[in-house]
Write a structure and sequence with these properties.
2 domains; 10 helices; Arc Repressor Mutant, subunit A; 211 residues; alpha/beta; six-stranded parallel sheet
Length: 211
């Protein structure tokens, strides 16, 4: 089955360009377009896409607020931010609100397709510039790792390697629902809001090494 995509951007030219490009890939299906965050939330509820390509600066409800509401109401849908905004606060807020990835609009076409596939699998994807900015922002925070169990540390290492819950379950020979419980627990213990934050901070502090 193709990956179902919802485009959320207030510029029709951007949406049209993305649709034309993405529809060249037989593994991707664009199921709808939203011109603001309010529409994006509503359309996710109607269409149940696998991934939303979300702009940040939009009318009515901005992309960051829409991301938070979508992740709260429809956790099975991943949100991949695609924007021209590159500042640490916006990036950090996007991750806190549940975005699985953050790409800039100058991202190469093939990298965008790769990011969509990774997002659909529950894997984190960041532009290199974005990862650097986010790591700097996270340095000001102080997540805790001392309270993690050995299993939770294993899961954190795999998250840092870009593994999805399904990948982790297969690697550790445990149920996917057990992985979800471990992820929830380690996020709470570290005091972070998303697996993206946990992964980047773990790598930054040397708690985990990307492979």
């Amino acid at each position: 089955m193709p990956i179902r995509i919802l485009l959320a951007d207030d510029h029709s030219v951007v949406r049209q360009g993305l649709r034309m490009f993405l529809e060249l890939d037989e593994t991707i299906e664009v199921v709808g377009e939203a011109k603001n965050g309010e529409e994006a939330i509503h359309m996710v509820g109607e269409l149940h896409p696998d991934v939303v390509l979300m702009d940040v600066l939009m009318p009515k409800i901005d992309g960051l607020s829409a991301t938070q509401k979508i992740r709260q109401q429809y956790p099975e849908t991943e949100v991949l931010v695609l924007t021209s905004v590159l500042d640490e606060v916006t990036i950090s807020n996007a991750v806190r609100n549940g975005a699985i990835g953050y790409l800039l609009k100058d991202t190469q076409a093939e990298d965008l397709c790769k990011a969509i596939h990774l997002a659909a699998e529950g894997k984190v994807q960041m532009s290199p510039e974005v990862a650097a900015r986010l790591a700097h922002e996270l340095c000001e925070e102080h997540p805790r790792i001392e309270e993690l169990t050995s299993r939770e540390r294993e899961v954190l290492q795999l998250i840092a390697n870009g593994a999805s819950n399904k990948d982790i379950a297969s690697h550790l020979f445990i149920a996917e629902k057990t992985v979800k419980a471990h992820v929830s627990n380690l996020l709470a213990k570290m005091g972070v809001q998303s697996r993206t934050q946990a992964a980047l901070y773990a790598v930054q502090k040397g708690w985990a090494r990307p492979q």
